[in-house]
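Sample pair:
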Amino acid sequence: MTFTDQNSRRWFLPRGGFVSLMGILFLATGSVLANAAEQPVGFVNEVMPVLTKAGCNVGVCHAKAGGGQKGFQLSLLGFEPLEDFESLTKDGRNRRLFFGSPDRSLLLLKASGQMPHGGGVRLAASSEGYALLREWIRQGAAFDRETVPKLLSFEVQPARGSIKRGGEQQLKAIAKYSDGSVRDVTGMALYESNDKAMAEVSERGLVKISDIVGNVAVMVRYQAKVAVYSASVPLGSPVENLPSSKNFVDEYVFANLKALGIPPSAICDDATFLRRVTLDIGGRLPTEEESAAFLANKDEGKRDKVIDELLRSPDYADFFANKWTALLKNRRDDESDTVSNFAFHAWVRDSFLANKPYDQFVRELLAATGTVIGNPPVAWYKRVKEPKQQIEDVAQLFLGVRMQCAQCHHHPFERWSQDDYYSLTAFFSQVGRKPSG
């Protein structure tokens, strides 16, 4: 069989050559189709979870927050994927990746223990994580395209539960993405028990309970998302016939005791009650006259009445004003602070004495304008001057959130990011000051 090329040259094919040529064309076409259909390995959704799960970006290893190791730095727990991509593919003259032979990449050789590595073996050469990183390198180690779905939400199933002592619970981590897809990422999530003596959790999310009774929580993290599994470990059967609740705090406490099978403590005697409540509310011991009158009183509602009396007393205002002025850093460093120090303390004390609503107290403090003499809560801005310190104090005192770590990096045990930190700081940076005098 012959055929002519574009230069009019005649070519001869041996017998069977046509079949061989067609086979070659078929294989080539099939290879192109296979490559076209090949799913690219995602950097954010696949590579970063592998590195995080292996512990490559924790503080004692290569996390930038801990200084990194051997010139190789990654963002703490992978919160900055683009920076990590640059570090992996460009830093160190790209010596960490070998595209011609992925298995010879420094990243894989060290992680698998085939080369000396201070962190030991992090990824066995036979593991799924190793195979995924190898495939990513083979594909050219590209960053994600804009069309790659983004993680929208993350949850752990179940979110709550009751487990017997010595029992187990397998957790399931579910990630939901912007394209509507839902993935089981149980194997790639990180798990941390808040009480390892009470509950241990495996790398695959299996919770094992000891013989300790109480409540325990497991934090589950995947990428920048955090979910929590809460478990109660009861002593026995649920407790019945609990005392009646006097407020919403009692309702929560009694519900928890009922679930744990723990009966509430016995009610204390009158002398013990008076001593405790006077110390807790008034910051002092009851006088001899107060004790004698309370013990002689046969009124069934006398305990509620003494609480109300203490809350209306100057002792309560003085005691809690001292607590709050300490928290709000109302101190004197020199004589020039005397006026603002006393004015601010008096404002806080008067607020408690007047039973000012908590939200009003906070609003008057944070929105304060004017001078210390005309508006004492302004003294807080005089004492706490820097916006960063202001947002850290406000977050911890009024929101119950610690933001300090987020100034430099994402906090490993909180959901707050650097963006959250500096966005909140921006509000306080707008506070202006005029020279006094």
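The chain has six domains: 2-37, 43-138, 151-233, 240-266, 270-300, 315-428.
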